[in-house]
Amino acid sequence: MYRELDFILLSGEFDTERALGPYYESHRFTVLSPGETTDVGFVLTGRPIGLGAGPGEQLLFRWNR
Asked: Is 63 left (phi over 0), alpha (psi -120 to 50) or beta?
């Protein structure tokens, strides 16, 4: 569905207790460590925008380029 919509960025979060990082990495997602952020702004808006997960969660994302 996301390919049909020509997504640019697909992201989500999961609880650190679930240890889903290897699963998402096997599907070409980047999984950040707890508390880590990434800058998505320059690609989307030309300005810095930090994206991260809340306490006890990890962020995963994948760019469609």
From this structure: beta
